[in-house]
Fold this protein.
Amino acid sequence: MDPIGGLLLGFEVLFTPENLVAGLLGAVIGTMTGVLPGIGPTGAMSLLLPLTFVMSPTAGLIMLAGIYYGSMYGGSTTAILLRMPGEAASIVTSIDGFQMSKRGRAGAALAVAAIGSAVAGTIGVLLLMLFAPTLAALAINLAPPEYCLIALLGLVALSFLSSGSRWKGLAMVALGLGIATVGTDPTSGTSRFTFGSLELSGGLDLVPIVMGLFGLAEVLKAVGSDERLPSVKGVKFRELFPSGREWKEAFPAIWRGSFLGFVLGLVPGPQNVISSFASYRLEKKLSKHPEEFGHGAIRGVAGPESANNAATSGQMVPLLALGIPFSATSALLLAALQIQNVQPGPLFIQANPAIFWGVIASMYLGNLLLLILNLPLVGVWVSMLRIPQPILLTLVTITMFVGAYSLNNRLFDVGVMVAFGFIGWALNKLKFDLAPLILALVLGGFMETAFRQTMFLSRGDFGIFVARPVSGVLVAAIVLVMAIPLIQRLRNRNKQHAFADARAGKEYQR
Amino acid sequence: MTGTRRSSVTSDSEPGRAAGRPDDVGRPAGQGPSEDAELEATLAELYEEQEETGHRVSERISVTVTACLFLLLSLLYLVQAFGYDLGTLATPGPGLFPLIIGFGLVLASAGLVWESLRLPKDRFVVWPYASYALRLVVVLVASVVYIVAIPVIGQFLAGALLCAALLFAMRSRRWWLTIILSVAFSAGVQLLFGTVLGVPLPDGPLIF
């Protein structure tokens, strides 16, 4: 379907009461999630997953996507005003954004962040709209070995490129895959790891696990902290306009950030955060006045905020075109589709044009909506910070408990959620990254099926994994990802030796 | 404005979270150390580690213990996996993939044990002190009570109890506000899921 036809269909699908409400809800909740500390996009999305069960697939996806990119807007508000980013993708924004605040240019920073996010979001959706169907069309030629390898690449990349040790990442991947095997094996009908339990033979449902790991674990963390959020004075509407000079500086940064963010979003990893850091570095390198950075450079706000928004669209490309998520948030979007028995994969766009184009249309509208929500209404969000955390968290928790029950009408799921809540809390304390775990849980079944099909096709020969050019490239990519940290360590060691030599007075020439 | 609390940032996996410990930050390959150091110095300055109160247990011990538990779990998983029909490579049975995962688990745990034994001695994990730990236990007990009691007293009452326990755990001082909020939240959730969304929620001894 060509983009124009698709968009027309999309807007037609979007302008129904259910989908419009879903979009609005997603944008509002997303902004709130970004503004309020203690719950991030993954927490909010997992909390609302049970709700999507009763919505149509389109509405559910629209809402969750709205939360996802909405939170990228909201996080910058507290980052700029209070130097307290509501979520990690806005950490970089808080560096220069807060400095601008201190100089009375808070309004300008907020405006640039919001407008940059809107522009980047729109560019991102445009690129998504153009890339995803093309990629999907190409991907139809992919065979089980390639699917298996792409999933493996995603898992390896996420565990190797995330923060923390690689062994921890691998352990989380292995654990996730292991949990995914619990239940009845679809191919042979054998019950695995069920120990005779009737509930377990249906397998461990992803949603309660995710609600526990991302939702309840955060609540448990907050139970221990004693934070009092400082009050902020309101921002007057007139102050919201950046000066002409600020605009001239910000605009190229927004442009660059959008493309950088989108491209980085295509790659596995927590790309919203990584792209914001990458954009900051890029802007600093390109700037004629790098010394401004850290003291209120508007590019340090415009670039990263645009990048983190565009990365959202980038991450949705492999999700919608291939059916393979490359991060925790896109894994949750996939879970939403799975709940509705919608089959993700290269045929998804072809088979479900209403859903795909409806979501695309909603993202265009959503970015516009969020611009309105985040600029004039910024005062509303800031005043929400005055709600004491215990009240918010209690409301969130009770919603999660009932939500978990509502999935399958059984208390077992609530129990799973509670168990994983405490497990998640402990893992967070020990600095294990949970994203590889989620990804492995979501991809586990898919990867096993692809693996078995591959083995069946090749009659047991592992060589099939390098037989075709695409699979060969994927294998090389996996090896490369695993090798990068080792190479880096060797380089660092060389640099240290060189440094030591120089200090010892030996001549060192670059 | 006091120094920012690192813990307010949501823990969705990212390099920035470990800003207080630059060596934890995952960097895209190829970045020069000097630019990074500057960025991290700025971040580290912003996010001075908040003095968490609690039992400071050496990270080495904490992670090693966890890794050993993990190893135990992997071995149990592996033993169980052997029990399923492996099939052949050409026709994989239900046991083949779990077998591979089992070995992967064992490998990862072993690697983790090896790595954790080599952790520096000066890094700590802060486990909760009595009061925080007690609050966590309250939440756990409340959750279990909720699950167990719901068939008897119904969702509304169980939910209200849960809310009250949570608010109490988060040190709400005013008991009357706690009761009002608990009832309100539980009723609200009941309305949302039960009425608006039509989910059948367990009924209590009263009409709701």
Notes: The first helix of chain A runs from residue 3 to 14. The CA atoms of residues 261 and 307 of chain A lie 4 Å apart. The mean pLDDT of chain A is 84.
